[in-house]
Amino acid sequence: MRDSDYTTALSKCVRCGSCKALCPAYEEETTEAMSARGKLTLLWGLSSGLLSPSPELCDRVFGCLLCGRCVGSCPLEIDIKELMYHGRRSLRDMDKGRRILRFLTKLCIKRPGSAFKMLSRMQHILFPYFLKKGILPFRPELPENHLKDRFRLFTVLKKQGRVAVFSGCMINFLYPYLGEALVNTLRRLNYEVILPPGEVCCGVPLRAVGLEEEAVKLAKKNINTFKRLNVEAVLSLCPTCTYAIKVEYPKLIGEGIERAEDISTFLIDKIESIYPQRSSFTQNIIFHDPCHLKYGLGIEREPRVILKNLGLNPVKINDDRCCGFAGLFCFSFKETSRGLLNRCVEDYTKAGGEIIITSCPGCMMQLSREIKDKPVIHLIEAVEEAMLQPVSLKEGLFAESPIQTTPPV
Description:
Layout: H1 3-12, H2 24-29, H3 36-47, H4 55-61, H5 80-91, H6 99-110, H7 112-132, E1 152-154, E2 161-165, H8 169-173, H9 176-188, E3 191-195, H10 204-208, H11 212-226, E4 233-236, H12 239-253, E5 260-262, H13 263-274, E6 283-288, H14 291-296, H15 301-309, E7 312-314, H16 329-332, H17 334-351, E8 355-358, H18 361-367, E9 376-378, H19 379-388, H20 393-396
Parallel strand pairs: 2-3, 2-4, 4-5, 6-7, 6-8, 8-9
Antiparallel strand pairs: 1-3
Helix pairs in contact: 3-5, 6-7, 9-19, 11-12, 13-15
């Protein structure tokens, strides 16, 4: 976004307050400066010279979850999320409070393999220390190996088609078994699967801390990697990644990965043909809508249809809650993040349900912090397990089962 477009977009805001109705940060903090309208007002004051940069102003601008809920509610169709990105870019040099977070984010994304190896070996020492010092809001568990570090091609005998997988950082380094579950599912549907080399971070964490130029470089690398592939779709298990490479890249560099698709839209008709919808359901579950899936990609119905076709009954929830993860937000605003999580867990406890299912690895991590009495799993786990044991869903679903991954060809 050019500076002139930025100031023009800020000037369009009439302070109507429609964006406040869906703002999770405002709901938790109930202060005007934490609402989308308040942040736009502050950015306008900064761009027009009425306000000077300050630690308090930086905290308000960086206090947005970037969930995108406010974008669809704006009657003037102001792209509030992009304005937040631009505002953070202009404030990053004055934002002293997130210097360490910005440095570590840049370092880990620049050399992800080396960072993973170091943290994996030292996690039992570093993570307790980081928790004690308040650097980490919770302790993650790093697996022994990540999903891919080279080209991987998974073939099938009767090829229905070919797809590529955009792994994303969380799937690649924190939840590689989810990537394996996706490969297993696609191969059972007779799809050849490519995990291409050259994929890098989608860039969202960098944009979140104001490192726009670095995010542009990553976007260009990903475009060059995936546009050369002759595939039907580019699938991701992370809605944030899908939204970034499909929707945000055209705004960032003028070109996106058009074939990028969430797994639920790709699988919905294929699962329906295998498991016709049933009249009685075996388990009540709660489906947690990731913000970037529902408000960014506009996907809400498809995951629930898939779950019903698997014999599961998604319980209706009165309030749509953000879990409070929001990527790096939970590191900078621990109390607000925890408050949003507690509201979410309280609603889900009242609603009942035997299992929590979501489509976002970040939401999985956040919800698992508090929900200990029931499984919190990804949609692809439910799909894969049902395809392994399509008859005895009640006994077999979510039981531990070995992942069978074919070696790369």
